[in-house]
Amino acid sequence: MDFEQLRAFYTVAQTKNFTKAAEMLHVVQSTVTTRIKQLEEKVGKPLFTRDKRSVKITQAGLTLLPYAERILKLANEALNEVAALQPYEDYLSIGSLNSIWTSILEPILKEYHYRYPHIAISTKTGHSADVIQFLLDNVIQIGIVYVPPSLPNFEVIPAWEDEIVLVSPPDDSILAATRVDARELRNLPLLFMNWGPPFDEWIRQTLPRSFVPKLHVDKAELAIDLVKEGLGVSLLTRSTVKADLAAGTLKEIAIVGSRPPKRSAYIVLPRDKKNKPSVEKWLGLMQEFGYSV
């Protein structure tokens, strides 16, 4: 498929307006119309229905849209990667979760940057599923995730285990006790963060089926801020709260009885990229920092 045709299709799909699409693409409207018609001839179906007032995407257009988006994204990533190599000897792109970047990988990234000035680096952030998709799309060479994929031609390396701990504000405004039975979590103002399997299984076994958290968050940093402000307690990985526990801005409450399972993290990379020099250097540096590779 022609990239310009796909770009015109994607832009019209986003704007629902041929005139606005032409302005964004810096071409005249007739050029956009021609590119759409040429693409429709290739796919054999209309991609839009249009009248004087509106432009609507068809079912064929909706089917094509995610593929067009991925093709254009991959083309842009490829151009960026090639461009990045010009003043450098090698290139490395790594993807992970925001909580892993801030609590684990940031010091490794800094050391890599200083130690290997001739290697260009780019980072990607998303949930585990996003990072796996980055790998499948060849956008990144290394992914570090909490949920290990089962994919052919990819190597999955257990890197570390992270303990899940209960934290509260440092004063006694929420909880004065220094320990709590796991079954009593139902009676606490729990700011709930789901750490995925097997944590969600432990929650189902520990708390009643009727339990519904009043506040459910999907970002560890947000949970930390809310706990500090006194909204409740939260179950978070030790790596994300390590600095706050040391500084005294959070307090750890020991869990008695059934304890949360540890959270495992995994390095995922294509087998044919493992011997790439920039990848080898990153894995070696992670090993220096004490992680399994």
From TrEMBL:
Give all residue intervals belonging to the HTH lysR-type domain.
1-58
Keywords, in A-Z order? DNA-binding, Transcription, Transcription regulation
* UniProt cross-references to PROSITE patterns, sorted A to Z: HTH_LYSR
Question: Is the keyword Transcription assigned to this protein?
Answer: yes
Q: What molecular functions are annotated in GO for this chain?
A: DNA-binding transcription factor activity; transcription cis-regulatory region binding
Q: Which InterPro entries match?
A: LysR_HTH_N, LysR_subst-bd, WH-like_DNA-bd_sf, WH_DNA-bd_sf
Instruction: Supply the Pfam families for this chain.
Output: HTH_1, LysR_substrate
- Name the family: Belongs to the LysR transcriptional regulatory family.
> What protein am I looking at?
LysR family transcriptional regulator
Native source organism of the sequence: Brevibacillus thermoruber
Q: What is the lineage of its organism?
A: Bacteria, Bacillati, Bacillota, Bacilli, Bacillales
